[in-house]
Amino acid sequence: MTGERDKVFVDEVRAIWCRELERSDITPEQDFFALGGHSVIMARIQRAYIDEMGYEIPIDEMYRNPTIASISAYLESLP
Amino acid sequence: MMIRGKRVALPSAPVVHKRFEAYAVAAPDAVAVVCGGEHVTYGELDARANRFANLLVSRGHGRGALVGVCLSYSIDLLVTILGALKAGAAYVPLDPTYPPARLRLLLGQVPDLALIVASPATAELVGSATVEIVDLETLRNDLQGRPATAPDVTVTGDDLCYAIFTSGSTGVPKLTAVRHEGWFNLLNWLQDEFGLHRGSNNLVVSAFGFDLSQRSLMTPLFCGATQHLIASRNFDPAMAYRTLERHDIRTVHCASSTLYVLADWEKASGGSALTELDHLLFGGEPLHVERLRNLVGREAGGCVLLHQYGVAECTDVASSFDLAGYRPGDHEIAPVGRPVHNTDIHVLDERMRGVGAGEYGEIGISGAGVGAGYLNGTGPESARFTTVEVDGVPRRLYRTGDRGHVNEDGELVVAGRMDAQVKVRGMRIDPADVERALSRLAGVRQAAVVSRSTDSGDTELIAFVVPEGDDLAGDELGARLLETLPRNMVPAEFVSIPRIPLSPHGKSDRFALMDVLHDRRKGQGVRG
């Protein structure tokens, strides 16, 4: 069951990242900053997590988890 | 062409921390700093800073010394800064979020650093063999035994208060020094001109390495107000906005790009904390007024929006424009207004003569804010500090390298750079600095970095790379650069090319490079 829930997070996060980074080809292991990401895009993604997924994620956690895979795992770990 | 700033008398010793000390005596129980769940009063902060100052002096790091500060926003950060100033030393801000390799490069540029105050985790990363690295927590016992009264040190307006890194023109960051008189004059102007007072509580939202952050840190303490800090390592819009909503914060200083983020946040969340501030002070890059629609053009009596201009070499702010009632015409650049007190702004031709009314030229700054120059060597940049005659008296003048003109209302308008430097999210960057870091990477034969405006009006860097062998993956190059450069310096896009096209002058040809990019875009339609 955990695996399926995790996959839902990965897909939602990937959709947000692709839209905000204007790319269609992001893999779960690619680094946000190496994809041309920066603080302003990070702020838009933080807002999208609130508006679209209902989670407020501290920016420091987003910097600590700079891939789709790791931030999805972080989201999954939340109560 | 010259715009003359208002002349205002300063005290005989215009020393920044003396103002703070006066509040510590007059209102010791007033809250000076709030950070996370903790706070400290003016009296306690003064005593803690005095103890640290006494420790510095006893170790021989008094007047004229340089103290490195590599701390996250915290009460200890302000204890360290005020302690260094009270000892007669100047502090050097080092952003703890920078990659360790970048911090070591910067440290290599500081002559005779007395010591560095850093958290234990950061100290390990920076790991300098030549400079002592301390943290206030381990010094706790030593500090407790020191006097809580200020050390007997004479500080004058000509002594240095901080020295900050800024982009050079040769790929080597320059360490530029600011004097107490200049900083005092700036803070005094803010207080006088805009009526800042003991209720003008502030929230810091900018990164510690910026010169504007030094002003944002000190302004409330100069006015007797409360400073609010967020202990987050990186700018956190959600936390910043919530702090604005929950505390009685009246002022915010930031880069224009940070203000767009906060304004977007306000719009998305339906709040009003930002528009209900007393003062927003911003600048550092070309302003996109349309991105501040919910702030600009409101009824009188609302938040005062101050669009500011300045350079680190001349104490951060040189001029300011009140955007009240400002309605931009098509393609019009928002002015940066008139000079700070005791400051004159010049528009000069290549022979250092003033240009005619409305004509474009290089912007020069003279007056109280002109700093003490660069502490790391006498590179070609040092020649930018020169002299000019004002009222028949020779004054020091700094040629900014910025291009501008004075409009028909007598306001300064900035229109880009005379050289290749660019601003990315408020950070002044020399593409040569990025080229140097890129060409040091294995597999890279040669690199050229240019800037470009995006559709939304932001500036981004594009790197053109000549690989040693096989093509290099852009995101891998980005990841490797992140180990040595701050994030704002890492290009948004990497393009592999067989050779760098050169202009007739032997420099990389920006237009030919952008043509390459355009052709690739048509072929692929993807980034990276």
What separation lies between the terminal Cα atoms of chain A?
15 Å
What is the residue-mean pLDDT of chain B, rounded to a whole number? 91
Tell me the total number of β-strands of chain A.
0
The CATH class assignment of the largest domain in chain B is Alpha Beta
CA gyration radius of chain B, whole angstroms: 23 Å
Oligomer: heterodimer
CATH fold-level assignment of chain A: Non-ribosomal Peptide Synthetase Peptidyl Carrier Protein, Chain A
Q: What's the total helix number of chain B? A: 13
CATH level-four homologous superfamily name of the largest domain in chain B: ANL, N-terminal domain
Q: Judging by the overall fold, what is the CATH architecture of chain A?
A: Orthogonal Bundle
Report the uncertain regions of chain B.
Answer: none
CATH topology annotation of the largest domain in chain B: Rossmann fold
Low-pLDDT stretches of chain A are: none
Largest sheet of chain A: none
Describe the structure in your own words.
The complex is a heterodimer of chains A (79) and B (528). With 79 residues, chain A is mostly helical. In chain A, 65% of the residues lie in helices and 0% in strands. Chain A has a single domain, classed as ACP-like (Non-ribosomal Peptide Synthetase Peptidyl Carrier Protein, Chain A), CATH 1.10.1200. Chain B has two domains: 405 residues, Rossmann fold, CATH 3.40.50.12780; 95 residues, ANL, C-terminal domain (GMP Synthetase, Chain A, domain 3). Chain B contains 13 helices and 27 strands. In chain B, strands 3-2-11-10-12-13-14-15-16 form a nine-stranded mixed sheet, with helices on both faces. In chain B, strands 1, 17, 18, 20, 21 and 22 form a six-stranded antiparallel sheet that branches. Chain B has a four-stranded parallel sheet with strand order 5-4-6-7. In chain B, helix 2 packs across helix 3. The relative contact order of chain B is 0.10. The mean pLDDT of chain B is 91. Chains A and B meet through helix 2 and helix 3 of A and helix 9, helix 10 and helix 12 of B. Chain B: It holds the Pfam family AMP-binding.
